[in-house]
Write a structure and sequence with these properties.
41% of the residues lie in helices and 17% in strands. By secondary structure, the chain is α/β, with parallel strands linked by helices. Strand 1, helix 1 and strand 2 form a beta-alpha-beta unit. Pfam families: Glyco_transf_4, Glycos_transf_1. Keywords: Glycosyltransferase, Transferase.
């Protein structure tokens, strides 16, 4: 099958959507599909973001300030690639991706749209109108990455198009091997619980909530913390930590993936306090690295973390603080979760399961008769 993935953002820009689109395209190519990617992200040679992808990447970059990912028309790529299906990847605001849905629909190409974010009130209002038009064209299947993210989408589409949950994928075998490589970094029984958080330090990830939570717990139990990532909130976070004498919090900045794995290997608990986390790829990676995960019960993390088994979930900041204190005070519980996480794979997040689910979505989109004249 000829599959064209379309995403506003792609490597070398680094984030959850970028990593997932790259991983999915690689897995599909290994399975025998003819895969290509179209993106509005420019190439930056020599930035060290990773190896050259083993599939073509069409960079339809528009000459706009700040490299805004609006992009040029997808029409020439559709004509040249002649895909059997266009798989569009969108966040809350993805102008290039949403235009691609319209363009592919007009060309009569089946479309699978994967929404990688949790829609808020503004997104729901905008897309309610768009879905009313798209539903009449046919050939559209919508997926999202978690049950939490599916709830607002289903309310918007109101049964006019199918909405399926297909998890993000991860190479479980690679993480198992990586755990063995870094096993020497694990220190059990240390006097301070080592809490790790990984992610972009941007407002939507609620980084200040993270620091306030750590400060609360640190006042009641001996802990240390490592915050991995960079973004516009980093300086504010560092000022907050200095002001409140939180010298036990280390900010590493952005790390490459092997370095992130090394940090996880030396930690005790992974903390993901954001309330609007659509999936939580970093939390999934931490779970595979053997860390108990503490996160929001209403977030996408709940799809692969069952309370009491893979970690602890809470509905408020106070709940998350209580969960960290419980894990700090109960090493047996913490070590039992860690052992379970290292030996039990989240099957729905493995690439074979993800590829099978998307194959079904492609078939469903292709089975409809697209009305190219609309």
């Amino acid at each position: 099958m000829r599959i064209l993935h379309v995403s506003d953002c792609f490597l070398p820009r680094l984030g959850g959507i970028e990593v997932q689109v790259d991983g999915l395209a690689r897995a599909q190519r290994a399975a025998g599909h003819d895969v290509a990617v179209a993106t509005a992200t420019p190439e930056r040679p020599g930035d060290g973001a990773g190896a050259v992808p083993p599939f073509p990447v069409d960079r339809l970059v528009a000459p706009l300030p700040w490299e805004l990912p609006v992009g040029r028309s997808l029409a020439p790529v559709l004509g040249a690639r002649k895909p059997d299906v266009v798989h569009v990847h969108a966040g809350a605001v993805s102008p290039f991706a949403w235009r691609a849905v319209r363009r592919a629909g007009r060309a009569g190409v089946p479309v699978v749209l994967t929404v990688h974010s949790l829609w808020g009130p503004f997104s729901r209002a905008c897309y309610r109108v768009l879905f009313a038009a798209w539903a009449r064209r046919g050939g559209l299947v919508v997926t999202t990455v978690s049950e939490a993210a599916a709830v607002p989408i289903r309310r918007v589409v109101d049964g006019r198009v199918p909405v399926r949950v297909v998890s993000n994928g991860i190479d479980v075998a690679h993480w198992r091997e990586d755990f063995a490589t870094h096993a020497h970094l694990r220190v059990r029984g240390a006097d301070r619980l080592h809490v790790v958080a990984v992610g972009r330090l941007a407002p939507r990830k609620e980084p200040m909530r993270l620091l306030r939570l750590l400060r609360d717990v640190g006042a009641r139990a001996p802990i240390r913390a490592t915050v991995v990532g960079d973004g516009p909130a980093r300086r504010r976070m560092e000022r907050y930590a200095r002001r409140h004498r939180m010298g036990w919090v280390r900010f590493t900045g952005r790390l490459d993936r092997p370095a992130v794995r090394a940090v996880l290997a030396g930690a005790d608990v992974f903390l993901a306090p954001a309330s609007r986390e659509s999936f939580g790829l970093a939390a999934l990676e931490a779970r595979l690295a053997g860390l108990p995960v503490v996160a929001r019960a209403a977030s996408g993390v709940a799809d692969f973390v069952e309370p009491g088994r893979e970690g602890l979930l809470g509905r408020s900041g106070a709940d998350l603080a209580a969960a960290l204190l419980r894990l700090a005070a109960d090493p047996a519980l913490r070590h039992g979760m860690a052992a379970h996480n290292r030996t039990t794979a989240p099957v729905r997040c493995t690439w074979p399961a993800v590829l099978s689910a998307f194959d079904g979505c492609y078939e469903a989109a292709s089975a409809k008769t697209p009305l190219a004249h609309l």
